[in-house]
Fold each of these.
Amino acid sequence: MTIEVRPLGADAWHQAFTMMELSFGETWPQDAADVERARFEPDRSIGAFVGDTLAGHAAIYSFTMTVPGPRSLDVAGVSLVGVLPTHRRRGVLTALMRHQLHDLHESGREPVAVLTASEPAIYGRYGYGCATQWVYAEVNRAKRAMRPVPGSDEVTVRYADPEKSLDVCAGVRDAIVPTRPGYVRHNEPWRRGEIADPESERGGASALRCVLAERDGEVTGFAYYRSKANWEPGGPNGTTIVQRVHATDTASYAALWRFLTDQDLMSKTTHRRLSLDDPLLSWLRDPRAAMVTVRDGMWARLVDVRRALSERRYTTPLDVVLEVRDDLCPWNAGRWHLAGDGSGASCGRVDREPDLVLDVADLGAAYFGRPVLAALGAAGLVEERTPGSLAATSRAFTSEVLPLLDTPF
Ligand SMILES: CC(C)(COP(=O)(O)OP(=O)(O)OC[C@H]1O[C@@H](n2cnc3c(N)ncnc32)[C@H](O)[C@@H]1OP(=O)(O)O)[C@@H](O)C(=O)NCCC(=O)NCCS
């Protein structure tokens, strides 16, 4: 079977849309598709053709994301990936992935690609590693008691119209983006997408609510949430479903969570994309008040090892030779001398014996600061040739706050 991968051109959205419906086995409601369309970048969409048939599709969103430093890095957000059920397991996805990575390298655009996986078993073979995790937390209202947070009583919470408060919420969001690796700077279509609130995606819950946290008349935070009522014979058993909570200071963040976890008629509050080091989990007096489930979040792929490793900063001083295995992107394979600290980094080819030998996917897993290298070494997946280099490299790659992708795509 001959597969030709090429840009989709003018009609890209319509073709991508049809492909998504068929490959995901869904009918995409118009209101949700409209939100997606506003973010779609037609010139970054590629199709895999078998004869005249569009057999597969992949797209890229142009993101700017926080990496350890903190620094802002342009990353390619790979999305809308699908292959026609009639053409599966014949290499169509592989052709798309290869084309996309080679094209990114040749164009010199983003040195890192990221994605979220429908099924996590798919992307490791293409050099993606699990770079962030998502914590699904369900807080039991009856056990919600929190430790006191200084200053939180001075914060008031009030309702606001999501549309009218878009700019003020965007200001809070922009202020917090550098505070955690993996946070994406939202441009206009992504800001609007946050409050688009398509009815088809509410799953029986209320319309989106927006509350602002204020101190001395200044907005210091906001939250977007929905409520889902549930009238049971034993009493009301509703859920507060939190979509996003941000604040520029700890007290305001605490005040927002206190509000969100204490709603009459709602016996629990859920959030799908928290970090394991979120302050909420430290404030709860009863750690079991929040039942948490941890799963893979963002997957990262170093498209260009040299540029990627020199763009981020390192928690402790590092001087190491890495031997990288990368069959799909041979320009990354081989030995790299990486030297860096909190203020700068350089990475270049070297002809010296390596201290560590590892797959490019494992570098991707560690890139945003997740503390995984030592664990991968303990698991026998990263080979330490120079004693002590694994612990030193793992420490230097690990950021002080856990990385988190909190913008699903
Ligand atoms: C996932 C999907 C894109 C794979 O496309 P495909 O063209 O069949 O993939 P390929 O033929 O190129 O497969 C490449 C390899 O991945 C494996 N693979 C493909 N889909 C897989 C899956 N869902 N789970 C585990 N492995 C998978 C194949 O077995 C093959 O392995 P091999 O290299 O060891 O032989 C396609 O099945 C699909 O459209 N699924 C539904 C939509 C979806 O989940 N999209 C991904 C969004 S993140």
Amino acid sequence: MSSVLQVLKCKCPNCKKGNIFSNLGNLLFFRAPKMNSTCNTCNFKFEKEPGFFFGAMFVSYALVVAEMVASVVLLRFLLGLSFVYVIASVLIMVLLLSTFNFRISRSIWIYMFYKNN
Ligand SMILES: [Zn+2]
């Protein structure tokens, strides 16, 4: 359970103290989250090889689909909103969660390939 919290907090998988991201990003100012290349506490290298985070796109895709399905079920079937409101709400939600999904997908990807030696 604690490693799930470490993934959500975007902490280094090696020392669990350093931050993966130096800047969380801000959607209102069109700023993408900025990643540290290495951990500022233990010097763990986050990008194992060039193009390592290409696979994080698939994690991000899965996250977005899960969020969309969950929000459609909640808004359409539990709250009974009309189709237009559901689509508009889902699009706004996906836009607002974009920086969160970017950070979490990369954090999940780093933890998936981390081996504790
Ligand atoms: Zn570290």
Amino acid sequence: MHNQNKISFLSSLVSSGNMPHAMLFSGTDRKAKMGISLGFAKFMLGGTEMHEGDFEEFFETGCECGVCMSVDKGIHPDLTVLPDYPVSIGSVRDLKKKFAMSPFASYMKVCVVEFAETLRKESANAFLKLLEEPKGNALLILIAPSRSSILPTIFSRVSEIRFFSSINMSDLIPEDELERCNQEIEVLERGEIQEKFAVARRYDLKNKNELASLLDVWLMRLRDKFYKDDSANAAALAKRIFKIKSITGWSNASPQLLLEKLVLDSE
Ligand SMILES: [Zn+2]
């Protein structure tokens, strides 16, 4: 199992007693990120009272104690999962209120933010307060496609654990190139139009391979969004990306112009 080392790492973090209060689970393997974060939430909420042994063993064998069952049913009072896309300022405010109180059933509180990359402006500012002034026993797990997809102010306050899909992107694409792709995709999705065009200008017939990596990483990231309600937009974008991929594969059409068209079509 390729995420085994993440599980062992989390396991050793708990035993070391040096658990960070905020973690970023980054990477393209959304299923693994969610599965392991909920498993970890269960393990921590149950504590040593319910869960003997380490997290690695716990995750492998599974558990059906009352705590774990209530997490599965989505009714554990000390676990908050923020599934909204984008994260709204309202949910962050509710979360802050919850985190200001002491735990109800467990000895700690846990929050999983499913789309931490959507924390922007007001929601990010409110969330930063939580990160800066952790109250009592609290654990925040942020899930995002990459470190560059979340705001630097947030990233600087979390410990990152990286996940990759079974098609391991880091095997296919060197780490620094993966990081570059992620940064450019952020701009292409969310930047100002001038910034988007500046990215497009970087591509010509000489660096077709780099463009191919960019498009592959982009498609991989979009897969995450198919799980959410903006899946129609994600699917439309994915179709356009596939089209560029195939056109650049067989023709000498200008990659810059194709990217510019994609940007304009998505405005
Ligand atoms: Zn349990």
Amino acid sequence: MIEIRAVSKSFETGKNVTQALSGVDLMIEKGSFHGLLGVNGAGKTTLIKIICGLLSLDSGQVRINGIDITKNPKAVRRILGFCNPDNMGLYLRLNAEENLKFFSSLYGVSPRVAYRRINALLGFFGLEKSRKKLVKDFSTGMKAKLRLAKALIHNPDVLLLDEPTSGIDYFSAQDIYILLKGINEELGTTILYTSHHLKEIEELCQKVSIIHKGKILLEGSISELNRQIRKTEVVKIKLKGDSVHFKKQIRPLPYILDIQEEITNSDNSDDIVSFKLLVPDASSAISQIIEKFGKEELVGIWPEECGLEDVLKITMGWGDLCAS
Ligand SMILES: Nc1ncnc2c1ncn2[C@@H]1O[C@H](COP(=O)(O)OP(=O)(O)OP(=O)(O)O)[C@@H](O)[C@H]1O
Ligand SMILES: [Mg+2]
């Protein structure tokens, strides 16, 4: 279980102060697979680095399985595995095997068990032939795999994974999803996971928190998030003609909350443009759009489910409104 209470953190660089986290409260239940979602600079990495002790907090409290991270960092280290997208935590001048040996002894794993786990993890990640290669000579994806292996080496109770599949190829990523799901379901490992691949979050996470400008704005399962923003629906339209002209006509309509042009390669005709509209009520928006555009222009219109990307966009819009 991860308990985060009123955590704030700012960075001072010269005369500039960045408030990276402002009073973050987050409760992650034991055995939960929890996604942390937010745009660049939202505060995800700062929060994860605080939880794993790589950064100090300005105020607030973090407890992992009941242990306060500032009072007993050693005890926390043994039950926590983490991987960050920068290479913090990997020794570039050691080879892969030496890195894993070093971390297994740091985490108190016996040499016999460590030997077995190192072989299993290097095998799983397809790194057995590179076990003697210096990490500085690894490719981006190989380093990402080794960071994950390092995070898993001591079978931690809690895993903090910050963009773990960044740089990892599609096929290996699929294997990693299966591995992480298995670890979560069978061993009951608590996982906090960040990613910019929303499909990955949808596929893996039971709960999601949305962080924006250092504050948690919304939290819940994906269906709960959808319900919380249920006043918004999605309508897709296809029109024949010039996209700039259509955007100018659609944007000011009173029932349109947002309009996004979609890039599709399924239309043979060059002058067909597709838009996704966020609206308060799909059926009334559809009838009003049908009234506005004639048959010559309107090629298709249909309602769609709100996806996680819509939830993220709408929530960030609320956050900006509240802050202004
Ligand atoms: N060491 C630092 N010094 C100064 N500012 C920092 C430092 N680390 C982070 N920040 C700032 O804190 C804010 C949050 O950054 P953070 O890295 O936590 O974002 P993030 O959500 O992980 O973004 P991304 O999706 O790009 O990884 C940003 O404004 C960033 O510039
Ligand atoms: Mg980050």
